Amino acid sequence: MRLLCIETSSRRGSVVLAEGPRVVARATHSDLNAHAERLRPLLDQVLGQAGWTKADLDRVGVGMGPGSFTGLRVGIAFAQGIALGLGIELVGVGSLEAMAAACPAEVSAPRVALIDARRDEVFAQAFDQAGRALCRAEALPRPTALCLLAERFPGAVFLGEVAQELGAPGFRSELCDLPDASGIAALAADRGPEQTLSEPLYVRDSGATPQNLPPSPIASRSG
């Protein structure tokens, strides 16, 4: 199965082409608030690297958050447009789950993925070594998040650049410091319709009024 995977829940935007879970081409950007402008060039870049065309794609995977409201909307809409245009399946994957999936198997401990949530909070979710969620994604107060999580998940390894900022013992790598499309690819190839996230994981209220919120961006489609 050939996949296009997209992640825009943080300041880093990433686009990956994969054969099953194996990454074939990857491109990223870290330009602030530029996902809308950069995704199309990144897609063209990875297609050129792989020697593929969009017609070669079998499925699109996209990070569903939690994370930046604007970033999520941009990435999901972009992924939805490609999937609808090609008539292929669209699979939604949790962004914190993607971070945990990118952690090497030899890290023999539960993984707690953390990203900045602003408002002096962090988004967090814990997973076991097999990738099963041990809790729901949640927003926690930044000053007390580590203590709360360490008590609930003793011996856990913390993932994310936020974890380092807070002084947590953890595993560091480019693919684990922020949500990345490579982690989406590791999960999206084998994800069935019943495992697809159909709504973004906003976790908390955006502050937007209901009439400004878009309709559900993902509907299961068979290729």
Concise account of the structure shown:
With 223 residues, the chain is an alpha/beta fold. 30% of the residues lie in helices and 25% in strands.
What distinguishing features does this structure have?
223 residues, alpha/beta, 5-stranded mixed β-sheet, 7 helices, 10 strands, disordered C terminus
Fold and architecture overview:
The chain is an alpha/beta fold and 223 residues long. It is 30% helix and 25% strand. It contains seven helices and ten strands. A hairpin with a 5-residue loop joins strand 1 and strand 2 (13-19). Helix 3 (95-101) crosses helix 7. The radius of gyration is 17 Å and the shape is globular. The protein starts with a strand and ends in a 35-residue tail after the last helix. Mean pLDDT is 91; it is low at 207-217 and 219-223.
Strand segment count: 10
- The biggest beta sheet, please? 5 strands, mixed
Provide the succession of SSEs.
EEEHEHEHEEEHEHEHH
Provide the helix percentage.
25-40%
Sheet/helix structural class: alpha/beta
Question: Which shape, going by the Cα principal axes?
Answer: globular
User: Low-confidence spans: pLDDT under 50, at least 5 residues?
Assistant: 207-217, 219-223
Tell me, rounded to a whole number, the average pLDDT. 91
Distance between the termini: 11 Å
Whole-angstrom Rg = 17 Å
Order of strands across the main sheet: 3-2-1-4-5
Report the β-strand fraction as a percent range: 15-25%
**Count of separate DSSP helical elements:** 7
